[in-house]
Write a structure and sequence with these properties.
The protein has 10 helices and 6 strands, in the order ααββαββββααααααα. It has 294 residues and is an alpha+beta fold. It is elongated and about 80 Å long.
Length: 294
């Protein structure tokens, strides 16, 4: 019964941790036209003017819209996705280095998001509020003072360019699930230590717990040093989890799956004693010879 409850709890925590990433990755936006951009700005009482500029070898047409002398919104319809990504990075870098030169190195309300066809970056400094957005082959930019920050965000929302939710909102539940996952893992490690006749308190000591996990699973605690080797540490983690599961079960599914779903499969082995390893016959013969018994 304990195993079933812990397995279900592990599944729930794992899903809660993964779900936000699935939601973020699904964000999809539709590009707008220069005419719609102009229309929405005009409907918000903002005068606009058009200028053409050539910013790279692809001759992108950039439509500049002036909110007033100190607040600028711009829109670009690029020739392709590659050009739009280039322009997004160019705008972002220009804003960053302009603020750095002005001494505004502290960025508040930082928000970054990206997937294959949509990028959104915004941040506030003492000198203003900055937003750069790329949707498919279009790029929009807002450089405004902090007094009209809310108005700029309302326009961005009306354009359909906001991400629909604040990614920072997800940080709290993700942090909570991370803490729960850590505590649950520690409970399982304590049980594993106890069932292997190792002081459970050692499971709470950093590095020492790694030493004994390696000793239980791989018979040599100093193999924990493999985790210091880039790339190989990732591979050794799965090897270690496989060997740990092998100490308790013959199920290939559990042995191979433990590395991928530790919260789900650790309780399957944590409540049990490790299997008794049968020594081969020749091992007994060697012991007898060492003892001088014929």
């Amino acid at each position: 019964m304990k195993k079933k409850i812990c397995v279900c709890l592990g599944i729930i925590i794992t899903l809660l941790f993964i779900l936000p990433f699935c939601f973020i990755g699904s964000v999809k936006k539709t590009p707008i036209t220069p005419e719609k951009f102009t229309s929405i700005l005009n409907s918000n009482g903002i005068e606009t003017r058009d200028e053409s500029a050539y910013l790279d070898e692809n001759s992108k047409q950039v439509i500049l819209r002036a909110i007033n002398a100190n607040n600028i919104a711009s829109f670009a319809k690029c020739h392709n996705l590659k050009s739009a990504r280039w322009l997004f990075d160019d705008y972002s870098n220009r804003i960053y280095y302009a603020n750095k030169q002005a001494g505004n190195t502290t960025f508040n309300d930082n928000l970054e998001f990206s997937n294959n066809h949509y990028q959104y970056k915004s941040y506030s400094t003492s000198s203003g509020y900055f937003v750069v957005i790329q949707v498919e082959d279009t790029v929009a930019q807002f450089v405004v003072n902090n007094k009209v920050k809310d108005k700029a965000n309302n326009i961005i929302k009306e354009l359909g360019y906001d991400i629909g939710f604040d990614i920072n909102i997800l940080s709290a539940p993700m942090m909570i699930t991370g803490i729960l996952a850590t505590l649950l893992s520690l409970v399982y490690i304590i049980l594993i230590f106890k069932n292997n006749n190792i002081n459970p308190i050692l499971a709470l000591v950093p590095f020492v717990n790694f030493y004994f996990i390696c000793k239980i699973a791989d018979k040599n605690g100093w193999k924990m040093l493999f985790f210091l080797i880039p790339f190989f540490n990732f591979l050794y983690y799965f090897i270690l989890m496989y060997k740990l599961a092998k100490k308790y079960t013959d199920s290939k599914l559990i042995c191979f799956g433990l590395g991928f779903l530790p919260l789900v499969l650790l309780p399957v082995i944590a409540f049990d004693k490790p299997k008794i390893e049968e020594k081969p016959k020749n091992a007994y013969e060697e012991i007898l010879k060492e003892e001088g018994i014929e």
